[in-house]
Structures are given as structure tokens and as C-alpha cells.
Amino acid sequence: MSSNQHFVVIGGGLAAAKLAEALRANDFDGQVTVLAGEEELPYERPPLSKQHLAGTQQLPDFTVDQAAWYRDHHIDLRLGTTATAFDARARTVTLPDESTLSYDKLALATGSRPRTLSIPGADAPNVYTLRTIGDSDVIAQVLRTEQRLVIIGAGWIGLEVAAQARARGVDVTVVESAPLPLLGALGPEMGAFYAEVHREHGVDLRTEIGVDAILTDDGNATGVQLGDGTVVPAQAVLVAVGAAPNIESAIAAGLDYDGGVLVDEALRTSDPDVVAVGDIAEQQHPVLNRRVRVEHWATALNQPAVAARTMLGKSAVYDRLPYFFSDQYDVGMEYTGYVGRGDDVRVVVRGEPSEREFVAFWLDSRNRVKAGMNVNVWDVTDRIKQLILSAEPVDPELLANPDIPL
């Protein structure tokens, strides 16, 4: 690749930083510009709902690269700069001041934003979402000072914040419209497991109920009115009802999309000069043989190495299995593999959920392992991967027997 080429990365999170690293690691000596919407250097997001709320990690601990790294590697990192649009035909990116940058190759790492609620009171100042370090700082302060928190939504963010709040002695009510927490992600068996964990730690978990309004007094939220008319008092409210991918500029530029920006095995979009990574990338996955969009840290960490090679015209395929982790109270878990919401699967458990140490496996109708989740059992991820990648049927009884090695 000739050194007069200009590669632009739109986004300022982990994926954007890793893309800049990967381009230089592949000896690209052209111009690299990273347009980062936030004012902070690119950082990792998992600690925002975990260690940062616990007070055990501060921003420098999970910042990807220090400012000197970008300077030493001649990366033009523009903080607080959100690209407003790009033109795939003209190969230009429009900046907030309406000036444009021309590019030879473009990487979209725009991430996602928290979904919000369009109900009365949702815009009160003490109603929060969690996505940025600023959000996490504010919520950490809330957990130190307020006594009653209502969390709307029992997904990963809602439950991780609930665990941190309970650790500080805050009264927590979690409201979820589905019958169980994490139902879409884990299904009923493991959703029930997490429901029990939180209730055991004193969370008032209310499922199968909607929220009609956030009640306010003098502008501030004072409670949450549920679908059945019940009012749950609150000094603060966290809305954790999922995330929406930031794909508006990609749609406006004419790229193919569905739930996210459609990319092939090499993370190339419908425009050969544009790649997409992280939360927004809906990839045709070569191992899973289906389109998947995985909004987790490991995707943002690992996809950029492949995307960088694609931008440089080298062959590369992103074939890693989806992976994510969560820490809630003394329950640490890792999940490997993929099960779609409508998939016909059954769960086989190895070990004792009541003892909080087990591995759960999702098996399809032919008894092939599709995913595995290890809870407080470590060093088994590689073996779970091997079971999934073999695509061979297993004996469910042997799988469930902890005395037989995986």
C-alpha cells in the first residue's frame, strides 16, 4: 500500500483504537485519521458497569492506548469529533464544521447508544442511561449517595448495576417486561438462575410488567409507575432497555443493512472500500453459517485485526466464535458460542446451579453443542470451543456428568 493513502476510522471506542493499532502493525505507512465522538481517549466499556462502579478501576486502567501511542504512531486522533455523514461515491467524510475529509478506505466503528423510553418523566435529570465514562461516573456517585434505585430492564447492564448497587446497600427494584431476566440472551433456564441470584441478594425483581410513567416532583423523578398502577418509589432511575446501533450514516450513504450494517466474512460492507466492526457489524459468519451481530467487548477487540487486513487488500476472515462475560456478586460467567432467539435448543447442565458452580450447554435437535456458559468454573472456554467447532453430536448424559472430562 502506498504511503500517500488516507484511511479514516469513524468511531472512538475499543474497536477504533484496535483498528489504528492493526493498520500500523500491518506496516501501513499512510495517513490514519480516527474521528472519536467522545472527549476521552478510546477506552474499554465493560468496566463501566463493573469495576468502575465498584471503585476498583479508574479510566486510565481501561484506556486502550495513551496519547503518546497515537502521537508516536502518527495517528491523527480527533477527540470530540463526530463524523456527521460520509459519501461513498465521492469517498468523503463530512465533519461537524461541514468540512470534508477524503479517504481511500473507510472503517465504521460507530458503536451503539442506549435505547430510551418515550414515557412521561423519562427526561428527568435523575433518570440515567449507561454508555460512557461520564454516565458511569454519575451512576457511581448515585450509588454512593442515594438509597432507592429503580432499574428498568433486566439485561446485562441493568443486572450488573443492580449487583454493584446492592454491594453498596442501595435498595434496588428491577422492572422487566419479559417473564425472566436475560431471556433473549440466555433462555428460560439460565434466566431463572439469574433471577434467583438477584432475589437472593435482596433485589426486588418484578417481571412481566411494563412501565407507564416516571413520576416527578419539582422536575426530579420520585418513582416509577408500573403497568398495573403500582408506584415504586425512587431517588434515581436507570433505563437499561438495550442498545441501538449507530448505523444512520451508513444507511444514508446507501450501504446494505438489516439490524446492523451487513458485512461479509472479511467484514467488508456492500461498498468494497468500507469495512464495519463491533456493535454495528452484522456479519455473515463462516462458522455459524448465519448472519450475526454480536454487541460485546470481544467483538470490538478482535474484529479490527481482520478489518485492517481487508482494508489493506490482504485476505482475512473473521471466524471467531462469539464470546462474552459478566460479573454479578460472586457469580462470574463466560459464554461462548451462539444461539439465536428462535433456535430449537435444549439446555444440559453439568454441575450444580444451586452451588453457583456449573457449565450449561445449549444443544440443537441433533445434540450438537451450539453454546456453553461456564459459571464460576474456569479454564474450560477452549474445551467448549472445541465441542462447538467439532459440530459432532454428543451424548447429553456424558456431557452432564462432571466426572467425565470435557
Overview of the molecule:
This protein has 406 residues and is of the alpha/beta class. It folds into 3 domains: 6-113 and 244-311, FAD/NAD(P)-binding domain (3-Layer(bba) Sandwich); 116-241, FAD/NAD(P)-binding domain (3-Layer(bba) Sandwich), CATH 3.50.50; 330-400, Enolase-like, domain 1 (2-Layer Sandwich), CATH 3.30.390.30. Helix content is 25%, strand content 29%. Strand 10 (148-152), helix 5 and strand 11 (171-175) form a beta-alpha-beta unit.
Determine the N-to-C terminus distance.
46 Å
Question: Which radius of gyration do the C-alpha atoms yield?
Answer: 22 Å
**Beta-strand percent range:** 25-35%
Fraction of residues in helix = 10-25%
Q: What would you give as the CATH superfamily of the largest domain?
A: FAD/NAD(P)-binding domain
Count of individual domains: 3
Strand adjacency order, main sheet: 3-2-1-7-19
The CATH class assignment of the largest domain is: Alpha Beta
Report on the biggest sheet: 5 strands, parallel
Structural class: alpha/beta
Kindly state the mean pLDDT as a whole number? 97
Which shape, going by the Cα principal axes?
A: globular
Count all strands and give the number: 26
CATH topology of the largest domain: FAD/NAD(P)-binding domain
**CATH-level-2 architecture of the largest domain:** 3-Layer(bba) Sandwich
Stretches where pLDDT falls below 50 for ≥5 residues? none
- In DSSP terms (H or I, runs of 4 or more residues), the helix count works out at 10
